[in-house]
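name: query_chain
kind: protein
chains: 1
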Amino acid sequence: MSYVFTGTTVPYAVSQPQIRKITIHDLITCLSQGWNDFRAAPTQLVFLCIVYPIVGLVAARAAFGGAVVPLLFPIVSGFALVGPIAAIGLYELSRRRE
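structure:
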C-alpha cells in the first residue's frame, strides 16, 4: 500500500490495482464469443471482406495511376488508421448483441 500526501498532516492510503494473468482459457473464450457474434450478425463480413479491401485497392490505384507515387506510403498509412475507426461499428454490433 502506498501513501499520498495532500499537504495536510495526515496522508491517506491508496490501494494498488490488481493485475491478473491472461490464460489460454481466456483467449479461447474470447475467440468463441467473437465467432458467436460473427455467426449471429454476419453483416460485418460485407465490410471486412469487400468494402475495406476495395477502398484500399482504389487508394493504391490512385497513387500508382497518377503522379502521386511518392504519396503512396502516406496514403497506405492513413488507410491503416481508418481500420480502428471502422472497428467502432463492429464493436457496436457486439455490444448490442450482449
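note: The two ends are 36 Å apart (CA to CA).
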